[in-house]
Design goal:
six-stranded mixed beta sheet; Rossmann fold; disordered C terminus; Arc Repressor Mutant, subunit A; alpha/beta; three-stranded antiparallel beta sheet; single chain; 3 domains; 13 strands
Length: 365
């Protein structure tokens, strides 16, 4: 646990001991990729150092309460000897990530995204327009409509007609299909720096944001190392880095194949990575160059960026490292796609993801 600080959970507050331990336990669950026994072991060690529990309520009581409240369960697939997280815990981890990363998120209407175009929607603008058949009456501007009636008919013959009515303009609201690509190559934990944990947090937060507040959107998640494959939202807490190179080409190809099947005209790819492409597949064999920036690999990657541009699929790259050579590559990649790129620290990754996700909701015409 060297390099990880959990001191924010040690202070005394109005919450119960269970609530405080639960918040820390969720954080440990993300760090351990959903390994309940390991997370509990770490929690026990932290308790020994910081006295989080009392004589009346210990770690054993916390484990019992976790089971009673449906966060964990005994046995894997009905077998004994292990402790597994429940679906309730998986949902709770996503909400925990959303609260931590997107704490600046404002309340919004469910299932709709504002665009720069006016039309049918729930979010009002500062503009008014004459009432037309089909406009919602709840959008009626009462004060302006009454003022028009007074001007048009006078007080002696006061009446309110359709020609007097004005309504608030609303933003046209669109839906978006998003594919989130997560790099799980070995470099995500290279040199003792944990980059996969913040990447998982962002992915879980984004998944919770879309499924709860924009339920009409679609979100597909893929991971890429030597190859690329699709995972489900529920698998995010258990994501681990493997002994892989970085096959960005495989990830982009899979992402575009998924988006081709989506009928929604608004599509985007978000890619979280910390390194340059180091691998492509030729037939059944892999062509690898661990030093990266290999011309054969780069040409394939840049070619896909251009292809995505022709398909009107913008790619937003979130680079967790800021090596000059990597920045140069990402700049090339972004120009080829006409997309966006952000170079962030591990702490800033969530904020950048959120801000750009919101901006990409706006349909340009």
């Amino acid at each position: 646990m060297i390099g990880w600080k959990f001191s924010q959970y040690f202070g005394k507050d109005e919450n119960s001991i269970f609530d405080r331990l639960l918040e820390l336990f969720k954080e440990l669950m993300i760090h351990t990729s959903g390994d309940v026994p390991e997370a509990l072991s770490w929690l026990t060690e932290i308790d020994k150092q910081h006295q989080l529990t009392t004589d009346d309520y210990g770690i054993a009581d916390f484990i019992d309460e976790l089971k009673e409240k449906g966060y964990i369960k005994d046995g894997r697939n009905g077998q004994g000897g292990t402790i597994d997280p429940t679906r309730k815990m998986e949902i709770s981890l996503r909400r925990h990530a959303l609260d931590e990363i997107f704490d600046q998120l404002k309340k919004s209407k469910k299932g709709k995204h504002n665009t720069k175009v006016t039309g049918q929607g729930d979010e009002t603008t500062s503009e008014l327009k004459p009432y037309e058949f089909g406009d919602k009456l709840e959008k009626l501007s009462i004060s302006e409509s009454l003022k028009n009636a007074q001007i048009n008919h006078g007080l002696d013959d006061f009446r309110l007609t359709q020609d007097d009515l004005e309504v608030h303009e609303t933003y046209f609201q669109s839906q978006t299909s998003t594919v989130l690509m997560i790099d799980i190559s070995h470099s995500m934990i290279l040199y003792g720096e944990d980059r996969i944990t913040p990447a998982k947090k962002v992915a879980m937060a984004l998944a919770e944001l879309i499924t709860t507040r924009y339920p009409k959107d679609s979100l597909d998640i893929i991971v890429f190392g030597n190859d690329a494959w699709q995972i489900e939202i529920k698998d995010l807490p258990y994501l681990e880095v493997g002994p892989y190179h970085t096959n960005t080409v495989a990830g982009l190809e899979l992402a575009m194949n998924i988006l081709r099947r989506r009928k929604n005209p608004n599509k985007q790819i978000m890619m979280i990575t910390d390194g340059k492409p180091t691998c492509i597949k030729k037939g059944k064999k892999y062509y690898k160059n661990a030093f990266g920036l290999d011309r054969k690999i780069l040409n394939r990657t840049l070619g896909l960026a251009t292809k995505a541009k022709k398909l009107k699929i913008p790619i937003t790259t979130f680079m967790i490292a800021q090596d000059p050579w990597l920045v140069k590559f990402v700049d090339q990649f972004t120009r080829a796609n006409d997309g966006k790129a952000f170079y962030s620290s591990l702490q800033g990754l969530g904020e950048f993801i959120f801000m750009d996700y919101k901006n990409n909701k706006r349909k340009r015409r």
